[in-house]
Write a structure and sequence with these properties.
With 686 residues, the protein is of the alpha+beta class. It contains 16 helices and 38 strands. It has five domains: 272 residues, 3-Layer(aba) Sandwich (Rossmann fold); 108 residues, Elongation Factor Tu (Ef-tu), domain 3; 67 residues, Elongation Factor G (Translational Gtpase), domain 3 (Alpha-Beta Plaits), CATH 3.30.70; 114 residues, Ribosomal Protein S5, domain 2 (2-Layer Sandwich), CATH 3.30.230; 86 residues, 2-Layer Sandwich (Alpha-Beta Plaits). The strands form nine sheets. The protein has a seven-stranded mixed sheet, with helices on both faces. The protein has a six-stranded antiparallel sheet with strand order 20-19-22-15-14-23. Strands 25, 26, 27, 28 and 29 form a five-stranded antiparallel sheet that branches. A hairpin with a 6-residue loop joins strand 12 and strand 13. The longest helix has 21 residues. Bound molecules: guanosine-5'-diphosphate and magnesium ion.
């Protein structure tokens, strides 16, 4: 099974509750890993193995597992759908070669479907769409497909149509092979009958196949020739063309089913093997040489020098497990790897293939594979591991700013060291989780992506790691930016213990092009005044100072800092002197530019029965919302889209429930920052 053509690195992504976990469970069942199907609502689903997940019935930590289908090895990663855990989705996409996007057949495209779709697009991950839950009352294949075509995919290839609908949903027509698959015996999930297309669907199936061939012919010359010659396109040729179009991200196949009813999963697995790329066909990521910055790539070849990306760490009381995607070379037990970020080598103690929460120890793993290791001291999420003689640095995934914070206080001073240790550990696993000390109160503050995220972190600390601590209420994380351009100068000239230290730094400031970035550049001419050896320290000090709020308040974002000049002393300049001078220059600069307080803004999507639209809108307006759109979903319900300050959205679930008798639903995601209105400023800052 070392043939790389037969490997798939697959992720399943979706809006929360679309059915990712259920689809994953069914996949594990059909590929022979599970003999009893774990139902989400029983809290027994195999991939949702963290206690927290079982209790909430949602998937939080992406777990990797190995399965086999038709001579192929599939490394399957279950990713969470809740927006609070978007970092998990982001970092798994970074290392996947293909994804199945699951949709709820009643709702079609939902808010988070768009988010994960955009992320997949960013990493150019080829996708299959799976319209799930076709057995539900109100489900519609056509409507869901239309929403995918309208909101997400430039070009869809419809490979199946459903047989029956809602409670009568029985199977699918495979348009490529012109066959019907029926699952009619619900007591035996393995039993699928393959047969002729039912009479009443034959005409529609012919029409749909023609449309499929037409769409493929539009993009593929081989099929186009047959099409123009009015020849029948054989299934094999059609499949090969669909594969080419999917892998090159020019089109997205669409399939359907009802995972909970065990319908449509085997054809979905066939499609994964048939249409999604092997590591050899997947795009290879770009890296750079860690010392020279020169562009580097590596072939997906087990004989090449090693390169791998750490995409996830996971700590429990037994230690730290690190998940890796190997891009080139071979990772062997006992082997040495080099981590260019910390410029250190380490030894690989053990290599594992992961089966949900169980581990299978292997001697080595090759390019294209996804495995886990233990015992790495320095590796954190986003790090590259490589051969020392042939170093390469892959670009890590990018993570959004945190939006909520909460204070945490150990119950005794003896407990403080332990709290610090646990926080550090959790931080290693989760790059969207921040820890800092409030400079005024001395309290430890943790920040995260949402109420649920903080709640989960809190429980992991208090329960899994048994830290004895008091935890405050979640509060919005503010940011600062500058009002406009400005400049500043900082000097450090001091004598301590008979040693003088000297440094002077001059900077100019401007709003950054990217609203959440902190950029630092040093003008080349500065090298004439400040020796190059101090430049890295100056850069670091400016970033740290900006992140720390430049003397008061919240971290800066959206700021571009240009070091324009300064002064050094041939005998007395030190790194420390330049660090302090740089920090002072920034403080003076932001004071000159003017500070602007920012608060997190959420994009909120609400689906509500028409009769509650008025009340929901009225309530949104009281929350200082900006309504972006109200569109009819179908005859009974409306989709409202708005941006609302996060601070106005605490406990919104409950309000929406009581406004709509529990019939409206919503989803929200961070969409940047906006200026805090002046009348609220004093109130917010207590
Ligand atoms: P996830 O949040 O995307 O992982 O979604 P889950 O797999 O946890 O499913 C959410 C809910 O939808 C659960 O109650 C499932 O039982 C249910 N569900 C999943 N697939 C189907 C389906 O095909 N039909 C129906 N009727 N319900 C489903
Ligand atoms: Mg789930």
């Amino acid at each position: 099974m070392s043939d790389l053509h037969h490997v798939r690195n697959l992720g399943i992504i979706a809006h929360i509750d679309a059915g990712k976990t259920t689809v994953t469970e069914r996949i594990l069942f059909y590929t022979g890993k599970e003999h009893r199907i774990g139902e989400v609502h029983e809290g027994a689903a195999k991939m949702d193995w963290m206690l927290e997940e079982q209790q909430r019935g949602i998937t939080i930590t992406a777990a990797a597992t190995v399965i086999f289908w038709r001579e192929h090895r599939i490394n399957l990663i279950d990713t969470p759908g809740h927006v609070d855990f978007t970092a998990e989705v982001e970092r798994s996409l970074r290392v996947l070669d293909g994804a199945v996007v699951v949709f709820d057949g009643v709702h079609g495209v939902e808010a988070q479907s768009e988010t994960v779709w955009r992320q997949a697009e960013r990493y150019r991950v080829p996708r299959l769409c799976f319209i799930n839950k076709l057995d539900r009352a109100g489900a519609s294949f056509d409507r869901s497909l239309a929403s995918i075509q309208r909101r997400l995919a430039k070009r869809t290839l419809v490979l199946q149509i459903p047989i029956g609908s809602e409670r009568g949903f029985r199977g699918v027509v495979d348009l490529v092979a012109r066959k019907a698959f029926l699952w009619e015996d619900e007591s035996d999930p393995h039993r699928v009958t393959e047969g002729e297309i039912p009479d009443d669907l034959r005409e529609l199936a012919d029409l749909q196949r023609e449309e499929l061939v037409d769409a493929v012919a539009d993009l593929d010359d081989g099929v186009a020739e047959r099409y123009l010659a009015e020849e029948e396109v054989p299934a094999e040729e059609l499949r090969a063309a669909i594969r080419r179009l999917t892998i090159s991200n020019r089109a997205t196949p669409v399939l359907c089913g009802a995972a909970l009813r065990n319908k449509g999963i085997q054809p979905l697995l066939d499609a994964v093997v048939e249409y999604l790329p092997s590591p050899l066909e997947a795009e290879t990521p770009h890296g750079t040489h860690p010392e020279t910055g020169k562009a580097e790539t590596r072939p997906c070849d087990s004989g090449a020098p090693l390169s791998a990306l750490v995409f996830k760490g996971f700590s429990d009381r037994h230690g730290e497990l690190v998940y890796l995607r190997i891009y080139s070379g071979t990772l062997a037990e006992g082997g040495h790897v080099y981590n260019p970020r910390v410029r250190k080598g380490e030894r690989i103690q053990q290599v594992f293939r992961m089966h949900a929460s169980e581990r299978e120890r292997v001697k080595e793993a090759q390019a294209g594979d996804i495995v886990a290791t233990v015992g790495l001291k320095y590796a954190v999420t986003g790090d590259t591991l490589c051969a020392k003689g042939d170093p390469i640095l892959y670009e890590p995934a990018r993570f959004p700013e945190t939006v909520l914070s909460m204070a945490i206080e150990p119950k005794s001073s003896a407990e403080r060291a332990r709290l610090t240790e646990v926080l550090e550990r959790l931080k290693r696993d989760d790059p969207t989780f921040d820890v800092h000390e409030d400079p005024e109160t001395g309290q430890t503050i943790i920040s995260g992506m949402g109420e649920l995220h903080l709640e989960v972190l809190k429980n992991r600390m208090l329960r899994d790691f048994q830290v004895d601590a008091n935890v405050g209420e979640p509060r919005v994380s503010f940011r600062q930016t500058i009002r406009g351009p400005g400049s500043g100068e900082g000097l450090f000239d001091q004598e301590t213990a008979n040693k003088r230290q000297f440094g002077r730094v001059r900077i100019s400031l401007a709003p950054a092009a990217k609203p959440e970035a902190v950029e630092v550049r040093i003008e080349p001419a500065v090298a004439l005044r400040i020796p190059k050896v101090f430049h890295a320290a100056i850069e670091r000090a400016l970033i740290d100072e900006a992140r720390g709020g430049a003397g008061e308040g919240y971290p800066f974002i959206g700021i571009s800092i240009l070091v324009q000049g300064g002064e050094a002393s041939e005998t007395d300049s030190t790194e420390l002197a330049f660090e302090v001078a740089a920090a002072r220059a920034l403080q003076q600069g932001v004071t000159a530019s003017g500070r602007l307080l920012l608060e997190p803004l959420m994009r909120v999507e609400i689906r509500t029965p028409n009769e509650y639209v008025g009340e929901v809108l009225g309530d949104l307006n009281r929350r200082r919302a900006t309504i972006l759109g109200t569109t009819p979903e179908d005859a009974q319900s409306t989709l409202l889209v708005a941006t609302v300050p996060l601070r106005e959205m605490f406990g919104y679930v409950g309000t929406l429930r009581s406004l709509s008798q529990g019939r409206a639903s919503h989803a929200m995601e961070p969409t940047g920052y906006q200026e805090v209105p002046p009348d609220l400023m004093s109130k917010l800052l207590f």
